[in-house]
Design brief:
The structure holds 3 protein chains of 3 kinds.
Chain A lengths: L26 E6 L9 H5 L5 E3 L11 E3 L10 H5 L5 E6 L5 E3 L1
Parallel strand pairs in A: 1-5
Antiparallel strand pairs in A: 1-4, 2-3
Chain B lengths: L2 E3 L27 H16 L6 E5 L7 H4 L3 E4 L5 H11 L4 E7 H7 L1 H10 L4 E6 L34 H8 L3 E6 L3 H13 L4 E6 L3 H7 L5 H10 L1 E3 L16 E8 L5 H13 L14
Parallel strand pairs in B: 2-3, 2-4, 4-5, 5-7, 6-7, 8-9
Antiparallel strand pairs in B: 6-9
Helix pairs in contact in B: 1-7, 4-5, 5-6
Chain C lengths: L10 E6 H11 L4 E4 L6 H10 L6 E4 L3 H13 L4 E5 L1 H16 L4 E9 L5 E5 L4 H6 L9 E2 L4 H18 L2 E7 H5 L1 E6 L43 E3 L13 H16 L2 H4 L2 E4 L6 E5 L3 H14 L4 E6 L1 E3 L3 H8 L4 E5 L6 H9 L4 E5 L9 H11 L2
Parallel strand pairs in C: 2-3, 2-4, 4-5, 5-8, 7-8, 12-13, 12-15, 15-16
Antiparallel strand pairs in C: 1-9, 5-6, 7-14, 11-13
Helix pairs in contact in C: 1-2, 1-6, 3-4, 10-13, 11-12
Classes of the chains: A mainly beta, B alpha/beta, C alpha/beta.
Chain lengths: ~100, ~290, ~375
C-alpha cells in the first residue's frame, strides 16, 4: 500500500492488486477524421478516460470535431471507435509514444 | 505525445473495407443510432471471420432502409416492408449465403408485419436487425406501431393513443428462435448479439433501440440525440430471459434489454427436406440450392 | 441452349391451360415458385408444388401476393428462374413490386389468369379486363411484355417464351391467360427437350470491381453480376445510375428511365408475335387475343362464306402493342373490329394506331362467358355496311 505507483496517475485502487508489477496499461493512438465528424458528442461523453472534448474549430460541414485534451491517456478501449456513428474516429494500439493523428 | 496532421498515406478506419466509401459520409443525422448499429454489424462480421462474399444485406424503406446502400456486400434496397419476402426468396434460392435484413420499426412491423410473422413462423434462416426509433423518421416523423402512448409525432400531434407493439413478444410468439434487444449504446453486447444471431440457425431477431434526434427527440422535446441516447442507456435494465409479456416500452420508461429467446428449432429448409424425404424416400435429393447445387 | 430432359415431360398430354403453363415453366428451367392461391390460377401453383420437389426446385406458398412478387425477385437475384401466378385481385397487389422488378431489371415471369372483375368480381369465370392494367398498372413510366395464349398448347409454349424474353431483356414478363384457357383441357404436345430452345441468363465475365450492375445503361442490357462471388453490388428501387447507387435528380431520372423504356421500344419488332389470317384481301380486320381469338373464328368463317372479306389479326404479344403493323393495316381496310372480353381496353390502342385511317369498332363483353359468335358476326356485318 505504500508503494508509489506510476499508475496512480490514472487509476485509484482501494487496495494494491497482487499483480500490479505485471500490469501494462494499453496505450492507444487516436485517429480523428475531422471532415467526417458530425459533432454528435458520443465519443466525448463515453470516453472512460475523458480524453476527448469537442473542439472550437469547425470542419467543412460546420460541425465541431473532437480534440484530444488529455494526451497520452487513451487506453485503447475502442469505445469511441465502436460508438461513432460516422466512422470518424478510431484507435490503434501502440506500445509507447502514442500520438494523436488528425485528418 | 504530440498532435500531428496525418501524412497522406494515413491508415484507414478499420471498418472501411466493409463500407461503400464512395458514398460516405452517410445521410444519417448526427447522434443517429443507425451509424452505431452499422458499426456493430461490421464488427460482428469481422469478428466472426465470415466470408464476406457470402453475405447479402436487404433493407426496406426509411432511414434504416439506407443501410444496404452503405455496406459493401451484395445488397438490395427493396420496396417498403418487402425486404423480408425478397430476402426469403433469395435465401431459398441460395441457402449457402448468409442473409441479413436491416429494417426499421415501421418498415418491418407495420407494412411488413405480415411478412415478419410468417417469416418467423417458417423459421427461415435469416437474421433480422430491427432498428427501433419509435417513429417514421425518413418521411418526417409520423406515428409508428412502436410509438409509445402519449408520444407526439407528426400524425399524432396530440399525443399517441394507440397501444404499441411489443416486438420481442411478437417475434417470439411468431416462432423466432433468437430474440434479443439492446440499445445502440450497449455496443459490445449488441455486437455479440448480432454475432449470435448470425450464427444461429433459424429466424433471429435483434431489436436495437436507437435515438432519433431530428424527429422523435425534437417533437417530444427530449433534448439532443445524445440526451436521448443517455436516457435509453441509463434506463435500460438487463434481464436475460425476461418474461416477454413484460418488456413493453412505455413513453420514456424503463427498457428491458437482454437476450430473451435462444432455442433450437428446425429451419424451413430442414423441415422441407424432412417432409419431402418422408414422402419420397430416396427418390428425393435433399435441397441444397435451386441453382443445381443439389 | 436446350432444355434439360429431366425437367421436360415429353409426350402427348391432355392438360388444362394452367397445368400446361406449369409444365412450360418447369421445362424452361424454372426452379422457384412463390405464389398465393387465387381462383382461377391456383392449379399452376398446385402442379408446381407437386412436381418441383423431384426436379430440384422449391415451391413456397407465401403469405400474400405482395410477398410472392418479392420472393420471386429475390430468388431471381439468387440466380434462379422464378415465377408466380395470380388473378385480378392479386395482380393489383403485385403491381408495386412488379415495378420494383422492372426497375431492378430482374428476370421473372408472372402469369395472370384473368377472371371477371373489378374487385372480387367473378372468381370462376373468364374476363380479359386486366389488359390495360398489365400495361399501366404499376406507377411511373415503364414498358411491359405481355403474351396471351389462346389454348393450353400455347400456355405451354408461351410460358417458355416468357422465360426466354425475361432473361434476354432482364425484366419481369407477363403471361396474360384467362380462366377459359386456364381451365380448358385439350391435347398438349410436349416436345423432346432438345427441341425446346431456352435463353439463359448472361452473367458478366468481368471480375469484381471491374463492372457495375447497370454499366451499359443507355447503351444496352448489362450482363448481371452474380451474387456470392465478390461483386458486392448494390441495387435499389430508387432512381439510380450505372453503379446502382441512388441518384435523386432529374438528370439521373432521364438516363435511367429512357434506358429502361428503350430496352423494349427499340426491340418491338423482335418481340412482337402476331397471328395473321386472310389479311391480303381483307376489307375488315378482326383483331383479338387470347380466348377471344378462338371465339371469333366461327363468326369470321360465316362472314367469309357470305362474301365479306374478313381478315384476322391475333395478338400473341399484346404488349408492346404492334403499332407499326396496325398502322400499316389500317390504311388498307374499311374497318377494324376489336373483339375483347372487356368494355374496351386494347381497343383504344387499335383506334389510336388506326389514327383515323379506318373506322374502328368494338365488340365488348364484360366477361363471365366468352362472346357469342353470333354477336361478333352481327358486328362484322354492321361494320362493313
Amino acid at each position: 500500500m505504500s508503494v508509489k505507483l506510476n499508475t496512480e496517475k490514472y487509476m485509484k485502487y482501494w487496495r494494491t492488486p497482487l499483480d500490479i508489477d505485471k500490469i501494462k496499461i494499453p496505450r492507444g493512438e487516436l485517429h480523428i477524421i475531422k471532415e467526417r465528424c458530425k459533432g454528435c458528442g458520443f465519443c466525448v461523453e463515453y470516453c472512460p478516460k475523458d480524453v476527448l472534448k469537442l473542439s472550437d474549430e469547425f470542419n467543412a460541414k460546420g460541425y465541431h470535431p473532437p480534440e484530444v485534451v488529455k494526451p497520452g491517456e487513451c487506453v485503447n478501449c475502442d469505445l469511441c471507435e465502436m460508438l461513432c456513428p460516422d466512422f470518424a474516429i478510431f484507435c490503434i494500439r501502440v506500445e509507447d509514444n502514442p500520438k494523436e493523428v488528425v485528418r | 505525445m504530440s498532435t500531428q496532421v496525418a501524412p497522406p498515406e494515413v491508415e484507414k478506419h478499420p471498418m472501411e473495407y466493409l463500407l461503400r466509401m464512395d458514398r460516405i459520409p452517410h445521410i444519417w443525422c448526427p447522434t443517429c443510432g443507425l451509424g452505431t448499429t452499422v458499426t456493430a454489424l461490421a464488427s460482428a462480421l469481422e469478428q466472426l471471420k465470415i466470408d464476406l462474399n457470402k453475405v447479402a444485406v436487404f433493407s426496406g424503406i426509411g432511414c434504416t432502409g439506407r443501410v444496404a446502400g452503405y455496406m459493401k456486400l451484395d445488397s438490395f434496397h427493396t420496396t417498403h416492408g418487402r425486404a423480408l419476402p425478397f430476402a426469403a426468396g433469395f435465401h431459398i434460392a441460395r441457402p449457402d449465403m448468409k442473409v441479413i435484413v436491416f429494417s426499421g420499426d415501421g418498415d418491418l412491423i407495420s407494412i411488413g408485419g405480415n411478412h415478419f410473422i410468417h417469416s418467423a413462423r417458417r423459421n427461415l434462416d435469416i437474421t433480422v436487425i430491427c432498428v427501433n426509433n419509435f417513429i417514421y423518421a425518413m418521411t418526417g416523423g409520423q406515428v409508428a406501431p412502436t410509438t409509445p402512448i402519449t408520444a407526439i409525432t407528426a400524425t399524432s400531434p396530440h399525443g399517441c393513443y394507440e397501444h404499441p407493439f411489443n416486438l420481442p413478444l411478437l417475434a417470439a410468439s411468431s416462432g423466432a428462435v433468437y430474440v434479443a434487444r439492446w440499445t445502440a449504446l450497449h455496443i459490445r453486447r449488441l455486437t455479440n448479439a448480432i454475432k449470435e444471431a448470425i450464427t444461429k440457425r433459424g429466424f433471429s431477431f435483434v431489436e436495437v433501440i436507437a435515438p432519433c434526434s431530428t424527429l422523435y427527440a425534437r417533437l417530444n422535446k427530449l433534448g439532443t440525440g445524445l440526451d436521448l441516447m443517455k436516457f435509453y442507456h441509463e434506463n435500460s435494465i438487463i434481464q436475460h430471459g425476461a418474461n416477454l409479456s413484460e418488456v413493453d416500452i412505455d413513453y420514456q420508461s424503463k427498457i428491458v434489454v437482454g437476450k430473451f429467446v435462444d432455442i433450437e428449432k428446425p429451419t424451413y429448409l430442414d423441415c422441407m427436406n424432412a417432409g419431402m424425404k418422408r414422402k419420397f424416400g430416396d427418390k428425393y435429393k435433399p435441397y441444397g440450392g435451386a441453382d443445381g447445387n443439389n | 441452349m436446350k432444355a434439360d430432359p429431366r425437367n421436360v415431360l415429353t409426350g402427348i398430354h391432355y392438360l388444362d391451360g394452367n397445368h400446361a403453363s406449369a409444365e412450360g415453366a418447369i421445362a424452361a428451367g424454372c426452379k422457384f415458385f412463390a405464389g398465393y392461391p387465387i381462383t382461377p390460377s391456383t392449379e399452376i401453383a398446385e402442379r408446381f408444388a407437386r412436381r418441383i420437389p423431384l426436379v430440384g426446385g422449391v415451391f413456397i406458398q407465401m403469405e400474400d401476393e405482395l410477398a410472392s412478387m418479392n420472393a420471386i425477385l429475390g430468388a431471381s437475384w439468387g440466380g434462379v428462374k422464378s415465377m408466380t401466378c395470380t388473378s385480378g385481385p392479386g395482380f393489383s397487389l403485385m403491381m408495386e413490386n412488379f415495378g420494383l422488378g422492372w426497375m431492378l431489371e430482374t428476370p421473372g415471369v408472372l402469369v395472370n389468369v384473368q377472371r371477371g372483375g373489378p374487385s372480387t368480381g367473378l372468381p370462376t369465370l373468364p374476363g380479359q379486363a386486366d389488359m390495360m392494367q398489365a400495361r399501366w398498372g404499376s406507377h411511373g413510366d415503364y414498358e411491359v411484355i405481355a403474351l396471351c395464349p389462346d389454348s393450353p398448347q400455347e400456355c405451354f409454349e408461351l410460358t417458355i417464351q416468357a422465360f426466354n424474353l425475361s432473361e434476354k431483356y432482364r425484366m419481369p414478363v407477363l403471361v396474360m391467360s384467362d380462366e377459359c384457357v386456364g381451365h380448358m383441357t385439350e391435347k398438349v404436345v410436349i416436345p423432346a427437350a432438345e427441341d425446346i430452345d431456352l435463353v439463359e441468363r448472361v452473367y458478366t465475365t468481368k471480375s469484381p470491381g471491374e463492372t457495375w450492375p447497370f454499366e451499359l445503361m443507355g447503351k444496352g442490357i448489362t450482363p448481371m453480376q452474380p451474387v456470392g462471388q465478390g461483386h458486392k453490388f448494390h441495387v435499389t428501387g430508387l432512381t439510380h445510375d450505372y453503379r446502382g447507387y441512388p441518384v435523386i435528380n432529374a438528370e439521373a431520372q432521364d438516363k435511367n428511365i429512357r434506358h429502361l423504356v428503350d430496352k423494349i421500344r427499340n426491340h418491338v419488332d423482335e418481340i412482337t408475335r402476331l397471328g395473321e389470317k386472310d389479311l391480303e384481301d381483307a376489307e375488315i380486320i378482326v383483331m383479338s387475343y387470347g380466348i377471344s381469338s378462338r371465339v371469333v373464328q366461327p363468326a369470321v368463317a360465316r362472314a367469309r362464306k357470305e362474301g365479306i372479306k374478313v381478315g384476322q389479326l391475333r395478338l400473341v404479344t399484346v404488349w408492346p402493342f404492334p403499332e407499326k403493323r396496325v398502322r400499316e393495316l389500317a390504311g388498307k381496310v374499311k374497318a377494324m373490329l376489336m373483339v375483347e372480353m372487356n368494355m374496351g381496353q386494347v381497343y383504344f390502342e387499335m383506334e389510336r394506331c388506326a389514327a383515323g385511317q379506318t373506322k374502328c369498332y368494338l365488340a365488348p363483353h364484360p366477361g363471365g362467358t366468352v362472346h357469342n359468335p353470333e354477336d361478333i358476326y352481327k358486328t362484322i356485318k354492321e361494320a362493313v355496311k
